[in-house]
Amino acid sequence: MAKGQYKKGSIKSSGEHGLYDKADWLKESQHHLLSAKMLRECSAEKKERIKKQFKPEDQSKSLAGIDELISQREAGNKSSILIIGYAFEMLLKSGLVSLYVDVPRKILRKDLRVTYGHNLKLIATEIEVPIDDDELDKLDLLYDWLTGDARYPIEPTNERNHTQKLRKVRHKFWDDEEFVDLQKLYDKINSFVLTIDASEDDPKSSQKWEMDGDGFFIYRTGGKLKNRIIVKYSKQQKENREDNKDSLRALLPNIVKDPHYEQYLSDNWETIKFSEIGN
Fold it and tell me: Cβ-count burial of 91 within 10 angstroms (0-12 exposed, 13-18 middle, 19+ buried)?
């Protein structure tokens, strides 16, 4: 195989590995979740040791090392939040891999980095995770933590509010109920992601059509998702300003050679979800 040809090839529905394999993304996600739980358990153990040292009957004992215990507890809490954020990211991106079957591998690589990045809410919306607004807000909060507060030093908005903001963020990281809620949300999303490929009562199918040699669109149906068209417009379509939903519909007779399939797509055009990729 010529150098670079593998990345230009399309993602297969089975037999892929690593970045192009949904199962590998899920495995990474589960490893991150396990690491986050282990850190949280370690932090809880430090919490009990701190409480024990402050018991009245132990007041005569030295409090040497208490600062280190507090520091260890804080480190465990903060790192557990960061790592569970990565667990969510890997989980949601495993769903994206399912959508990108038949798409060139190089486009998935680019879109993962450029289009989606750490934007958990955007990915969840794209793969149609059935969660409510409050749960989407939690994903937004995780995004803020992943890209800021759980990853870097606190950024104050003025010279005087650093301590106040630090206290507020630390309180969130130390909130064990918040961490439990995140685990419940993870389990909910995980249950859904496992159904995206197919199920006995809702099998997945797809059909792909090429356009001008460097464009294509895929019609995907089933797998618990709305029927959708995943489109990459060609250079010629962009130059002709035909890189839009209405123009693509007008071009269907020239692209879809099966008149019955073309008529079906045209009749259902307004109910089909569109995903534009590779830009």
Answer: buried
